[in-house]
Amino acid sequence: MILLDDLEPYFDALFEHELDKINSIYQIFLDDFLSNSFFINNKKVIIKNHYSTLKGYEKYFETFVHIVTWKSSKAGKRVFDFRRANRVHWIRSILEQRNDPRIKYFQYAEGDGALRDYYWFDEKDYIVIVEQITVEYLLVTGFVIDNRNRIQKRYEKYLDGLK
Fold this sequence. Notes:
Elements: H1 19-35, E1 39-40, E2 43-46, H2 62-68, E3 69-72, E4 77-80, H3 82-85, H4 90-96, E5 103-109, E6 115-121, E7 126-133, E8 136-144, H5 148-162
Parallel strand pairs: 2-8
Antiparallel strand pairs: 1-2, 3-4, 5-6, 6-7, 7-8
C-alpha cells in the first residue's frame, strides 16, 4: 500500500500510444483488484471484468477503461485521459486509507438513482467512487477533479443531511 503522502503520478509523462506504459498500469490495476481482494465494511470490492467495447481498448477490462478515459462531448465518445491513467495506482490506497481524516467521504444519488460512495482525497484533487451492489462494492471510477465546486457542493449537501 502506498501511503497518502507518497501518492504521485506513476510516470513523468504518459501518452495514449505508449502501450508499454498503459500495460504496466493495467497490470497494477489487475494486481490491485483481481489478484488481491480487499473489502470495505466487510464487502468485497469488485470490478467489471468483461472486456471493453471501446475501440482500441478491447483487450482491457471495462472498469479499467472507464478509469483511464473520460466522456468527451466534443468527440462524442470516451477518450484517453493521461491524468486519470497516471493515477490508477492511487485508487486502492485511497480506499484502504479511507478512514484517514484527509479522505472526505460522502454519498451521492446519481441521476439514474444509484447511490454511490465517494472518497475524496482533497489534498490531491482525486476522487474514487464505489457503488454497493448486493453484498459487494463495485469500483465505478477514480479521477482527477476538474470541477472542485461541484464536488464541494455534493460533499456539503451530504454533511447537511447528517445534521
